[in-house]
Structures are given as structure tokens and as C-alpha cells.
Design goal:
The chain is α+β, with helices and mostly antiparallel strands. Helix content is about 15%, strand content about 20%.
Amino acid sequence: AMTLPGQWTIGATAFAETRPHYGGTVEATLLGAPASLDPAAVRTHAEATIESLVFDTLYRIGPDGVPQPHLAVALPVADTKLATVRIEIRKDVKMHDGSVLTPRDVAASLDRARTTAKWVLADVKSITADADGVELELREPTDDLAMFLSLPQTAITKGGRPPGVKVVGSGPFKVKQLDGPRHRLELEAFDDHFAGRPYVD
């Protein structure tokens, strides 16, 4: 309660912001059926939507339209003399199967995107991995590399391979069940997502 000088007393309950509860179920439709769950093969809105829930990319586009590090530790660091870019990878990222994401997974995924969806990484000649990150050799310097590395086609898969029967990514949700005849895809929250368990509520 608060008393204003020469006036009356005001009493009100103050509500603090609370943390949402985990759990719940959301049922939604996609704009069409996905032809594939392979990030490198993303062509439709439905496929891009699923990719963003099941897989992670090195960068994400922030609310201001600017790429922000996601699986990467920081924005790309370029060596203009050598036309190379180095990207350090987060060390605390788990895949849905419990394995740890490695720079080799990143390099193999990006190399597959470079050869499958050629337009996405057209400026990249080669990709190599070391203990802490990846190095990209460029045909020519580009300021848009982080933007291209936030596209769904550059999402990281285990070993850089296309998802098989068991879809393994590192995203906030994992595939629980895919029922093609019923056109139903069931996802569940991934408790060990490096950015925190997603809230459904």
C-alpha cells in the first residue's frame, strides 16, 4: 500500500514476472508435407520449419535482422591475406543421441551443403576442421558469410550425413515419431539443448 500526501491510500497486488512451466502439447499444421527431413535438401516452408526445430545452425538471425552466434562462439574471423575464415564451435553442444557435437560434424555438414545446395556456400572453396572449430577457404571475401551460415540448408547433422530412420540433430526438439501415412510428425522437447530446454507453454 502507498499513501499519497493529502490524498488516500492505494493498495494493489504486485505481480512479478514468473518463469513459464515446462510441458504441455501444441498441435499445429505445416504449410504442406515435407519431402525430406534433410537440412541440405530444404526447399519448402514446411521443411525449413522442421529444420529450425530439430537442427541447429552456426548462426541465427536476431530480431534486428543481424546474424548472431548460435553453435558458433562468435562471428566469423577473416584473414583477408589468406582468404580464409575461422569459426570456433561451442564445446557444450549435445546431439539428440547423447553424443557431443564436434567440429568434424560441422565441417562435414557444411561441405555437404556446399555440394548439395551449391548456391548457399558458392563462395566457399573448402572446409576443414581442427580441435576447436572450422576453417573455410573462400574464393573471394564476403561480408555475408554469417548470413549464409544461418540458412536452413547449413544446419548441422551428425557426421554431416543426411538423417536416416533415426533423425539426430542438436536442436531444441527431437523427432519422437514420423508417421508418413497419417501425415503426422511428433516432436518432443530436448532436455539437453545447449540454449536451454524449450518451453511449450
